[in-house]
Amino acid sequence: MKLKAKILLLAILPLLAAIGLLSYLGLHHSRNLADQVLAVYEYNLVEAKKQALKEQVDLAHSAINNIISDPNLTEAEAQSAVKVLLGKLEFGEDGYFFAYSQDGVNLVHPMIPEFVGQDLFEFQDRSGNLLIQHLLAAANSGGGYHRYIWERPPLMQQEDKLGYAALIKPWDWMFGTGLYLDSVYSEVDKVKASFDSNIQRSFAGAMGILIITVLLIIMLGLAINLHEHRLADSRLQELVQKFMRLQVNERRKFSRELHDGINQELVSLKFRLELAVKKLGGGDEPHPALHDLNIASSVLNGTIQEVRQISHNLRPVLLDDLGLKPALRALTEQFSERTAIQVQLRFELEDIKVPDDIETTIYRLAQECLTNIEKHADANRVTISLTYQSPDIHFEVSDNGRGFNPRTAKRQGIGLVNMKERVEVIGGTFNLISDLGSGALVAATLPCRQRKRMW
Fold first, then answer.
1. 50 within some domain
2. d(Cα 168, Cα 284) in Å, to the nearest integer?
3. Does 122 reside within a domain?
4. Tens digit of pLDDT for each residue in 12-51?
5. DSSP label at 283?
6. What is the Cα–Cα distance from 125 to 102, expressed in whole angstroms?
7. How far is Cα 74 from Cα 76, in angstroms, rounded to an integer?
8. Is the pTM of this model over 0.70?
9. Strand, coil or helix: what is 87?
10. What is the domain extent for residue 398?
11. Number of domains in the chain
């Protein structure tokens, strides 16, 4: 084998190994992240379903209490009226109410009328779950949830179901309702399929880049071997330098886009969880949900760490759905609701057609600024200003917080670095003005190549 071929091979093999390893690690971390995000997503869906169930039972309980408190009804008449009411109440396509006595005798079951009067205390689903006993226990403990397998109308196929039971205290009746979890599973499956599709496309893209890169290197090696024998060593060195520059640029882009994407939403969720933990922990006794919230917060922290290893280059959905001003308004309102910090938005771009890349940059800058203010500023007032002075858009965010040392912040904060790089990528300028005790000002000048609207 000739020296030139050996040199070319030495260049290709490490490249193949490096890109192959990076592709494998990226795929592995992507799947791990997808699993964790899906777990959080499914948990949130189930919690939403639980809340909906409890609200339905609470509404039914209110109606039942009105019957019980009616002085014109005897106890037998009130019980009969409650049974009729529960038999008629329904929600959704397959939501109905049931009732049982403390010894497990069915009192109301509109879907399976033949159950009425039967002793179902020892009734089990196909998994051996003594569901009536569990529902009675949940009701006697003040109301609670239980998952079991039950026949779903109208086809009466057995499916997973989440039930909520409460107690009608005057008679110690257990009553409740439930919903089938197939909608949760279906939604999670759709999201999982979307994740898998994105991962596969990313992996296929990486493999395509790998093949193209290898072909380019081979062609370059042939060109060097045929036409530039004397410059082979220098050309190979130049190729290595180009590869290193490409690697540095890609890493910078990876870090910027990752930090500005899903990480912001996860951080916001983390703050909400922490706020919920603080609120629930303020009583004399720990709230039963504190343990689950702490576990969710721990899982979320791990998810945030994993997210930092995956690259996203996404345009904010709100910009496509609402436009720049409504998107910023929604962002600031959510921020104020979450933090109780007053935000004033000064938007003077109504007559300007802002390009998509500038819109994305403005939204990301505002998002990052609000995140930093929430985490570090200890402020109670924020002002966001967007003005147009041809040919530039001027963006400013100021707060009345405790301020900081800009030099130290630029060295330690990846968010500030990402904002600066994002502005410079589109040809703008970025400035940061702050001092301890005097708040902070983030200012950016963004070139706008569009003319004013004619309407």
1. no
2. 28
3. yes
4. 777 777 777 777 777 777 778 878 888 888 888 888 888 9
5. S
6. 19
7. 5
8. no
9. helix
10. 315-447
11. 3
